[in-house]
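PROTEIN DESIGN WORKSHEET
SECTION A - STRUCTURE
LENGTH: 170
TOKENS:
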């Protein structure tokens, strides 16, 4: 199983149980979770780490733990869930790191990694229609809005990039 190499400022690592407290400090923040499913409890974070560890073993990809190289600090997550239609990409960082190009640096690297390693022919993302930061990031990595989907009492946008579109943009 080939893990993505590090970028200039970040490393992508498998999850370890020891990261529960650090991940909780990110996922308990209202501003981080506003457009996801609300602040997480420690139980939810433990479940997430278990899921991602299993996902990496079974699917060869996961939503990796992203580490800040400069101070060896957990920044959040970026990575994939393998679905029938392709890889679903996700991103989530501590507000400390927002708007400094980290999201783009991570997402660009992982999209390139997935296509270069033939992990998928399609990468897609879904986000709450009010999640401007998330869809600005999707657009910056070359994804195109393809649908608006009714989820519950709100809508999600769907964004995608195909291997062909990725190749054409290189
Ligand atoms: C979405 C998220 C990962 C973006 O990370 P980031 O490191 O701030 O992103 P970047 O700094 O690389 O910015 C990428 C682009 O998005 C834009 N952007 C980032 N935050 C924005 C905001 N709040 N409003 C408008 N645009 C925004 C940037 O300006 C940049 O575009 P530009 O180069 O044209 O200026 C971050 O906001 C986050 O963790 N949000 C909370 C968790 C979440 O909602 N995740 C997504 C669930 S679907």
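SECTION B - SEQUENCE
RESIDUE ASSIGNMENT:
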């Amino acid at each position: 199983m080939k893990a993505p190499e590090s970028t200039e400022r970040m490393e992508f690592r498998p999850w370890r149980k020891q990261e529960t407290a650090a991940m909780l400090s990110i996922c308990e923040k209202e501003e981080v979770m506003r457009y996801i499913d609300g602040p997480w409890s420690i139980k939810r974070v433990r479940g997430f780490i278990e899921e991602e560890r299993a996902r990496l073993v079974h699917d060869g990809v996961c939503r990796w733990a992203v580490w800040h190289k400069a101070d060896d600090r957990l920044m959040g997550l970026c990575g994939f869930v393998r679905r029938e239609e392709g890889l679903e990409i996700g991103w989530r960082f501590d507000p400390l790191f927002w708007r400094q190009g980290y999201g783009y640096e991570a997402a660009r690297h992982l999209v390139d990694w997935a296509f270069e390693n033939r992990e998928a022919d399609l990468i897609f993302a879904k986000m709450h229609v009010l999640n401007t930061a998330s869809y600005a990031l999707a657009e910056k990595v070359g994804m195109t809005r393809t649908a608006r989907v009714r989820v519950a009492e709100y809508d999600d946008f769907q964004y995608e990039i195909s291997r062909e579109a990725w190749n054409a943009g290189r």
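SECTION C - NOTES
The radius of gyration is 15 Å.
Residues 32, 35-36, 91-93, 97-104, 127, 131-134, 136-137, 140 surround coenzyme A (CB under 6 Å).
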